[in-house]
Amino acid sequence: MKKIGFLSFGHWTPSPYSQTRTAGDALTQGIDLAVAAEELGADGAYFRVHHFARQYASPFPLLAAIGARTSRIEIGTGVIDMRYENPLYMAEDSGAADLIAGERLQLGISRGSPEQVIEGWRYFGYEPGEGATDADMARAHTETYLKIIEGSQFAEPNPRPMFPNPPGKLRVEPYSATLRDRIWWGSSSLATARWAAGLGMHLQSSTLKNDENGKPFHVQQREQIEAYREAWKEAGHEREPRVSVSRSIFALVNDEDRRYFGLDRQASDQIGNIDEQTRAIFGRSYAAEPDVLIDELAGDEAIQAADTLLLTVPNQLGVDYNAHVLESILTHVAPGLGWR
């Protein structure tokens, strides 16, 4: 069995060719797609977070709304950029959303990705400490956040409070007792995968990774997963680790599918530089008839190694079409690979 969900970036544009023309469209359609995915038997609804972009930016109102409309599906992010986050305020928001959802959040967090603006986190009031990088700042914010959602009691109470306090120091409220066990780290390297394992976070590995040895993308990603699981074992955590990978996968089962994706396939890995220091490898996409997809996906070593597969969806094609994309994979592909 493999958990299968979707990952939406929530793109919107006023173009007449888009079915998602406003931020309101993107948000309400994200809710509707999560509801449809649950009805289809999918396991997860995940959302990418980008600031200063016509995409999803503030995830917790969206996650809470989905939590109120659904009852079973996992609700997550992939990923929240921790350079932009106040760990205490995020603990309040995520705790509230998790409780509304009945403790179903699966929060992917990370350093983030290339941005729309230069050092956008500075506009949010954050700056790395002396001698530190923005990546160091993201990891510091993360470690603080993890400590807070563990229920750390650290705040000195007012001796004359407006309302009576419980004994001792106070913690951030609302508090979800299980949320700490459902935090994931979005990793693009072996080193950060091992770091995440040490802290007891699950692993999200996407369609982009640092090119660390020149091997095919799915092989490098499988090696990263193995390194992560070994580090988890060495850390002695009692929980079972989870690992997700994301892919663009389209089963061509009708003329509409073939018109959208039949002739436009990124059938091989791509290499590029995401900044001056980082050479990255981008994974291929898959688009074919179901029987061909089954053979191709069986050879993707990272998909086989992961327990969770997130399908990146073209959200601007609308809720109905994206529900069809999910249903096609769940019906025509997943059973042939033993995932269902």
How is this structure best described in words?
- The protein is of the alpha/beta class and 340 residues long.
- It has one domain: TIM Barrel, CATH 3.20.20.30.
- The chain has ten helices and 13 strands.
- The strands form three sheets. An eight-stranded parallel barrel has the order 1-2-3-4-5-6-8-13, surrounded by six helices. A three-stranded antiparallel sheet has the order 7-11-10, covered by helices on one side. The chain has a two-stranded parallel ribbon with strand order 9-12.
- Helix 1 packs parallel to helix 2 and helix 8 (290-298) packs across helix 10 (319-333).
- It is globular, with a radius of gyration of 20 Å.
- The N and C termini lie close together (6 Å).
Which helices and strands appear, and what pairs or packs with what?
Elements: E1 3-8, H1 23-40, E2 44-47, H2 59-69, E3 74-81, H3 87-100, E4 105-110, H4 134-149, E5 183-186, H5 190-198, E6 202-205, E7 208-210, H6 217-235, E8 243-247, E9 249-251, H7 255-261, E10 270-273, E11 279-282, E12 286-288, H8 290-298, H9 301-305, E13 308-312, H10 319-333
Parallel strand pairs: 1-2, 1-13, 2-3, 3-4, 4-5, 5-6, 6-8, 8-13, 9-12
Antiparallel strand pairs: 7-11, 10-11
The CATH class, by name, is Alpha Beta
Strand order of the largest sheet: 1-2-3-4-5-6-8-13
Distance between the termini: 6 Å
Give the SSE order as H and E letters. EHEHEHEHEHEEHEEHEEEHHEH
| Oligomer type | single chain
CATH-level-4 superfamily name? Luciferase-like domain
CATH architecture: Alpha-Beta Barrel
| Strand residue percentage | 15-25%
Shape: globular
Based on DSSP secondary structure assignment, what is the total number of beta strands? 13
